[in-house]
Amino acid sequence: MAAADSAPAASSSAECSVAPSMPTDPDFLSCVLQPPTPSSSRPDADYAALRRLLLRRKPPSALQHRMEWRCNGKGYVAYRNFLLRRIDGGSAHSTPSNSGRWAHSPGPALSEADSWSSIRDLRTNSGLSRTVSLGSKQSDTERHVRFAEPAYSFVGMHCIFDSCKTSVTILKFGRASSDLLAYGAADGGLTVCQVSEPPSVLQKLIGHSKNITDFDFSSNNQYIASCSLDKTVRVWEISKGTCIRVVYGVSSQLCICFHPVNNNLLLVGNANKEINAINFSTGRGISKLNFDDAVTALDVDHTGQLIFAGDAQGYIYTVSVNSHTGSLSRTHKNKSSKSKSPITTIQYRTFSLVARCPVLISCAQDGNLSFFSIATDAKGYLTLICSLKLASRVQTIRASFCPLLSLEKGEFIVTGSEDANVYFYDLARPKNSCVNKLQGHGSPVIGVAWNHGENLLASSDSDGTVIVWKRAKTN
């Protein structure tokens, strides 16, 4: 290295020769950055050059890190998998049959956004982020051309299950699973499928004699707990296809879920105006809590400390639960709408960008969709943020959050309808809230459910058909 009078040239040379991406030993850097000592016979020319270089290499901002995983498909799913890594998402093993089938052609009318794919590609290349979608027949305003959100554009049907001959009342994907799907029917049958290649039926669980009203997967997807209008709760071992436990009640059992922290605890709402906490291993009741009317829907927050339950009069209750003992206590009572219509859906979500806190949606029989913020420091007190009035329903139609796009903007939900379409709504929009719809069913759509990766959406109808839709990839 040259002497002090040639330091500028040496600095320039050092700046050009050192690659910013090369790993550097921290101990070496700490030594290099030390100023020359007074006893040095000559100053170190590399000190100024390396300091200038390191100051120019600023660390990436936290905002850029968030943008990398926020709502860009694979990055978001990887982030959520990290948060849920304690959950074992293995699916059941069984001999698959050939009851499932691929949908060979999506058809021209599956999604309103599909016929505009060329326009979507042009707009994507030009930097625009929305696709054109024809207006649905929901209102005069929505008859005009609208824009569909690209994250909820679909390329067609992934597969179809049509072996059921009666109405499919409820369907769900396995916990932390993108492949395991189950659906319950009005004849009491419960079917477990896989949707990957080849799509097939794994098990048909026969035991209930009447309409299956609800079911839930255990955290490891080894068991299913189901409830029915036949007044029983049944526990099934999926791999063997057998019922290992039956709990008899005195009234119709209407909703059920596993406790998220203590999976030995089952929570069941019934027509006898009760929520019962049941020991999964023994089938014995641990505790129960009485309400003003039949408990028709429920969900539990991620901590397992709060239960949110809806009744047949349109009220939503917040209930505290002890994860160890299973004891229940009522804390709040909220009215979801002015009408006295049964609640068909209660769904909790950990966070919303709109509310900046945990949120809840409720769907009532009369078509009222309500979106609440949850005050966790006030034992789950609910505050209504916005609501959406849809057409009144005869069927018990369910709704679900669309968490993928909701992480970016708006508050999106998906719901079935009696006009045989699947609708996507943004609750944050006062007008033109319908952003897309899927067409393919031939009868009223009752149930909807997302898989874990949110690349597949399953919907069921009153004719017994289950369609698994494939979401379009977005960059």
TrEMBL record:
Source organism superkingdom: Eukaryota
Cross-referenced Pfam families: WD40 (PF00400)
Annotated keywords: Repeat, WD repeat
Matching Gene3D superfamilies: YVTN repeat-like/Quinoprotein amine dehydrogenase
Keyword Nucleus annotated: no
WD repeats: 205-246, 438-475
Keyword Repeat appears in the UniProt entry: yes
PROSITE patterns, per database record: WD_REPEATS_1, WD_REPEATS_2, WD_REPEATS_REGION
Region of interest (Disordered), residue spans: 1-21
Protein known as: WD repeat-containing protein 13
Organism, as annotated: Urochloa decumbens
Lineage: Eukaryota, Viridiplantae, Streptophyta, Embryophyta, Tracheophyta
